Amino acid sequence: GENVEQHPSTLSVQEGDSAVIKCTYSDSASNYFPWYKQELGKRPQLIIDIRSNVGEKKDQRIAVTLNKTAKHFSLHITETQPEDSAVYFCAAPLSPSGYNKLIFGAGTRLAVHP
Amino acid sequence: GAVVSQHPSRVICKSGTSVKIECRSLDFQATTMFWYRQFPKKSLMLMATSNEGSKATYEQGVEKDKFLINHASLTLSTLTVTSAHPEDSSFYICSARGTGGYTFGSGTRLTVV
Q1: pLDDT of B5-49, one tens digit each?
Q2: What is the DSSP letter of B69?
Q3: Which of B51, B101, B105 sits opposite A49 (nearest CB)?
């Protein structure tokens, strides 16, 4: 069925270390892969996204890689800072009816310790 | 950029009453909007896809008679939680798909007492 799986569920790192979060998706037709950061009680905030015609995209300390063959994509955060602590969600659009509904992974709670 | 306005931001209602949540796309037209529910420390779960001028498409397990969706115009979708019960207490959030991707409303925290 339609599924987006995300690992790990929690991640604890020391400030300055790197953090990697991985997601797999089931719909081979998916062509857009966003990553969101959500703070408590707030809307998801888009931090980076990638489309299926590229394999990697970078924005300062954040990067996303995509492997369409294996149907997985990853979020990489380098030089982590305490303010990076939040819940991160991957998502992928599924389009059984052409509506491209966005399905979210289960989330990763990232804690960056000073 | 694309903006989606959602109201109210929080609401407290009594069991058995109905609550309406509005989602508006302010600077773009959205033929399709999406409604999500998020329980504490959980992910966003898609409830339904709201289609302008036609019936909403509900995800498996979501009661269409309990969560009424109306998408009467290209900029407005509403979600009405009917006969609310304490277990309906949750964070409800809408989203609209524009040319640049998906834009989210600020969410509505519903508490049913």
Answers
A1: 999 999 999 999 999 999 999 988 888 999 999 999 999 999 999
A2: E
A3: B101
